[in-house]
Amino acid sequence: MESQTVKWKHYFLYLAFIYAILYFLHTNLLLNNRPIRIKKWPHLPLRFRHDGTFKILQVADMHFGSGLLSRCRDVLPSHFHYCSDLNTTRFLKTMIQLEKPDFVAFTGDNIFGPSTTDAAESLLSAFGPVMESGIPWAAVLGNHDQESSMTREELMSFISLMDYSLSQTNPPSKDINNVKRGMFLDIDGFGNYNLSVYGAPGSHLANSSVLNLFFLDSGDRETVQGVRTYGWIKESQLNWLRSASRELQVQNEEVKYVIKTQPVDASAALAFFHIPIPEVRQLYYQKFVGRFGEGVACSSVNSGVLKTLVSIKDVKAVFIGHDHTNDFCGNLEGIWFCYGGGFGYHGYGRIGLARRARVILAELRKGDKEWMGVERIKTWKRLDDENLSKIDEQVLWELSPSR
Ligand SMILES: *[C@@H]1O[C@H](CO)[C@@H](O)[C@H](O)[C@H]1NC(C)=O
Ligand SMILES: *[C@@H]1O[C@H](CO)[C@@H](O)[C@H](O)[C@H]1NC(C)=O
Ligand SMILES: *[C@@H]1O[C@H](CO)[C@@H](O)[C@H](O)[C@H]1NC(C)=O
Ligand SMILES: *[C@@H]1O[C@H](CO)[C@@H](O)[C@H](O)[C@H]1NC(C)=O
């Protein structure tokens, strides 16, 4: 009888203990009485929709400061008193609701360092609408993001931990002896990484990447022989780009082998970075679609980005920012270079020129029975005017019909 009571006591204590643990785990993990936030992840992998499309919203140069306190630049005098970073927030919410993108790409100068004393807070506000939307997103840095309380490395690491963010500080190192940079590849800059977009659900390409997105850090400022200039993409980054592109194209070849009976289209890729390459200047003398509103502000160093892109073959279009009143697309040696156009109200612009965003739509080829690889890449822009006008729609790339 006695031992039975002891047994029951133990049993009860045991249950209470289990319950306490479950309660603790279920409610909150507490650290210094503050709940630990666990990053929210989007549904992965990224993939095309059932209708064979994948839509990206490019947001260039939000220039977010400290919210209500950061006034708008270059708006009509009658608008000045009622305009702040909150207008940028509203425009981002509107664009997400209107275009319903599958992915949002932020191409740098997301925050404007000099206008905030707390980079983390500014980032949380700037990316607030996309985090609330639950849409996967990624960002690279511009030349102004680090001009506040965080270094470029800290910024990228913070951005990569934000809800629904797929940003990475740098690609993981495959060489286990390479521990110099911790678990990252030894590569210049912060924010060099790739994301794969898989084929349509239910198709043979459902588990294969058909569209690769490359993100590169174009740096901030540098001094070359005593002269200040903008940053550029370094050889170590181009080396990584070449090997990642090659690896992904080999994977694609393997899929081709598996499917055998059906032709598989070569993989397509897009690239995103902040500072234009020097060759973009030449577009002034060629045909371009959109607005060439100011000189191209780029580095005095030409590190051979265009040459590399031409040689790897998969990148069809590059999306850049930096020059807010340029929003054109032009073609250099078969590769499109498109500006996003200034998005943020605290960034410079031109009075009377609406803030804008770019939309990129990739469409799959319809095979006999199912969706195949990428067939077409289109783009257009949306203005933050009363009609949210859609302008400059164009096809950037199309699979050659000869196949
Ligand atoms: C900024 O937002 C306010 C409040 O919604 C609005 O009244 C104002 O017109 C906006 N300004 C611009 C330039 O869009
Ligand atoms: C893709 O992966 C899923 C889950 O692993 C599997 O059920 C499906 O058959 C795969 N599809 C193809 C086309 O390989
Ligand atoms: C990036 O590319 C590599 C090939 O270099 C691929 O294995 C990897 O899955 C890609 N990363 C993502 C996140 O898609
Ligand atoms: C918006 O659309 C209306 C009706 O089509 C037109 O009258 C107006 O000029 C447009 N506004 C802008 C800024 O394009």
TrEMBL record:
GO cellular component, one term: extracellular region
Keyword Lipid biosynthesis in annotation: no
Cofactor(s) listed: Zn(2+)
Matching InterPro entries: Calcineurin-like_PHP (IPR004843), Metallo-depent_PP-like (IPR029052), PAP14/16/28/29 (IPR011230)
Record's subcellular location: Secreted
Record's keyword annotation contains Transit peptide: no
Domain (Calcineurin-like phosphoesterase): residue spans on this chain: 54-325
Subunit description: Homodimer.
Record-linked Pfam families: Metallophos
Chief location: secreted
Protein name according to UniProt: Calcineurin-like phosphoesterase domain-containing protein
Swiss-Prot/TrEMBL keywords: Glycoprotein, Iron, Membrane, Metal-binding, Secreted, Signal, Transmembrane, Transmembrane helix, Zinc
